[in-house]
Fold non-specific serine/threonine protein kinase.
Amino acid sequence: MRDGGKGYDPATAFLITALCAASAALLLLVDGAKGDEDEFPTLLINGFTATHAAGSPSPFEPVLYAPNRAFAFGFLRVGPGSLDLAVVHLPSSLPLWRATPARLGDWSRPATLSFDTTLVLTTAGGPDTTVLWQTLNAAGDTVALLNSSNLVVRRYARPFPSWQSFDYPADTLVAGQNFTAASPPLISSNRRFALRLGASFIALHMEFYGGRARSPAYWRHSALEEPPAAGNATVYGRLDGRGFFGMYLDGDGGERRVDVLSFDTFAEANLAGALFRRMTLDDDGNLRAYYWADGGGGSTKAWTAEYEAISSGRCGLPTACGAYGLCVPGDEAQCQCLTADTTSPPCHAGGDDEETAADLCDHVDAELDVVRRTRVSVAYKEQLPPFATNTTAAKCEAACAGNCSCWGALYGGASGYCYLIDFPVETMVYDADDAKVGYFKVRKVQSQTRRRGMAPGVKAVLAVVLVGLVGAGAYVGYRMWERKRRRRGEGMMVQELGTGPYKDLKSMASSNNSFKA
Ligand SMILES: *[C@@H]1O[C@H](CO)[C@@H](O)[C@H](O)[C@H]1NC(C)=O
Ligand SMILES: *[C@@H]1O[C@H](CO)[C@@H](O)[C@H](O)[C@H]1NC(C)=O
Ligand SMILES: *[C@@H]1O[C@H](CO)[C@@H](O)[C@H](O)[C@H]1NC(C)=O
Ligand SMILES: *[C@@H]1O[C@H](CO)[C@@H](O)[C@H](O)[C@H]1NC(C)=O
Ligand SMILES: *[C@@H]1O[C@H](CO)[C@@H](O)[C@H](O)[C@H]1NC(C)=O
C-alpha cells in the first residue's frame, strides 16, 4: 500500500484479508437485515459501486430494487446509444424517473455508479473519467428505492431523506409525489414540452431551442380564483392514489386542498388503492394520467389513460401537424400545410431548426417569405395575450411585419382581436370563417437561397472580414478547449436535472419513453 502496491509484508496481508472478510460479513448482515436475496438488493451503503460494461446487450441494468419488486433503479439505455440512470416500473418497463444529466453517457463506453455519501455516475471518456451526474448537497449513509418508486438517500439518524428523486421529476409524477414551486418543471421525454407550476395554477408550455427561447403556454388550469397574496404560500400539486390530481395550499391548519382534477376512475371506489397511477407529460404535448391494473387473472395488463388535459382531439394539441402545419378538425383530424411548397407535413424545415437562431431579431437580414391564409386560428388562443382589440386585419399584419420578434399574426375576424405569435410558428387550426386571417413569416431554407452577384469591392471587404472571423474563431475554439480541459481536470461537469438549460435536443429527440418500444 505504502510503496505504491509493490508487495505487502505478511502482517499487512493478514490485516487486509481480515478487513475484507469483516466488510463482507457486514454487507451480508445489512442484506440479511432487509430479508432479501443477493440478486435483489434493496439497500446500497457507502462504498457501493456498480459498473456498466461497454455496449451491454440488456437495455436496463438494475442495481437496486424496491421491496415490492415493482420498481428498480439502474443503468438505462436511451435512444440508440445513450446512457442514463432511471427508476423503471418493471411490469411495463417504463422509466418513471430519469437522472437526465446535461450530458448523457454513451452506452458503448464503460460507466460507473458509485455511492460514497453521494450518488455519482462517471464514465470513462478517453484518458479521463467524467462525472456525468451527481446528487448534490445531500450527504447520506444509505440509498433505497421505496415502494412508491421514490429513490432516497438517507442519513441513518434522520427521518427525512437528504435527497429524493421525487424532488427532481423527469416527465412523470406518481402517487404521493409533491409537485411544488421548488420542483423543476416536468419535461416531456422529447424535450418539446414542459409542465410548470405558477402561484395559483399549473400550465403546459412549448419549449423552443432547449428552453433558451420564450416558452409560450398552451394550456392552463387555475386552482384558485385569485392568486395568493404576495408572500403567502403558493399552490402545489400531488397525484392521489385514489384517482385525482389535487392542488393544495399550506396554511396554519396544515395542508388545505383547494382544487381537484379528477380522473375517469375517481368514482369507482373498488379500483382505488389496487392501482398504480402515474401522470406523464407525453411527447405529443398532452398531460395524461394512467393506471396499471395489478389485479390477478390472465388479463393482459396495459397502461390505461384515465385523464387528459387536452381532450378536444388532435387539433387541440399545439404541434399536432408540426411547424407551419394546419390541422383540420373532424372525426379523423387531417394535417395540411400553411406553406405551399408541400401539402402534407413536414411542412417547412426552416422554422423549427435548432441551428437557426431562436429569434428572428438575431437574423434581421435573413430572407423571409410571407404566407397569408384565411380560415386559420390557433387552438390555444386564450393563452395568447391579444396584442390589440377592435383593430383591422391590415393593422394586425402591419404590427407583426415591422417587428422582428413576431413570427406571425392572427386576426380574429368579427371580434377585431389581433394576436401576435412571438415564437416559432407551430400548428394552426382550420376555422371555417373567412374573416379569420393569418399572416406568417417563413424563413427561407438555406439551400434554396439564391445568391445575388456581389461587386468586387464588397468581395474584398468580405474576404478581410472572413479572415478576421476565422482567426477569432480559432482563438475562441482554443479558449473553449482550454476551459474544457481545465474543467475536466476538476471534475466539474456536474449538472442535475433542472439546474441547467436542457441540452442534447438532438439525442433526446430519438429517445423513447419505453425502452421496450
Ligand atoms: C413494501 O412492499 C412490500 C411487499 O409488498 C411489503 O412487504 C412492505 O411492507 C412494503 N413496505 C412499506 C414501507 O410499505
Ligand atoms: C408532500 O407534502 C406533504 C405536505 O407538505 C408532506 O406531508 C409529505 O411528506 C410530502 N411528501 C413527500 C414524498 O415529500
Ligand atoms: C394570505 O395572507 C393574508 C394576510 O397576509 C392572510 O389573511 C391569509 O390567511 C393568507 N392566506 C393563506 C392561504 O395563507
Ligand atoms: C372600434 O373602432 C371603431 C372605429 O375606430 C370605433 O368607432 C368604435 O367605437 C370602437 N369600438 C370599441 C368597442 O372600442
Ligand atoms: C413586438 O412584438 C412583441 C411580441 O410579439 C411585443 O411584445 C412588442 O411590444 C412588439 N414591439 C413593438 C414595437 O410593437
The CA atoms of residues 50 and 59 lie 16 Å apart. The pocket of 2-acetamido-2-deoxy-beta-D-glucopyranose (ligand 1) is lined by residues 67-68, 147 (CB under 6 Å).
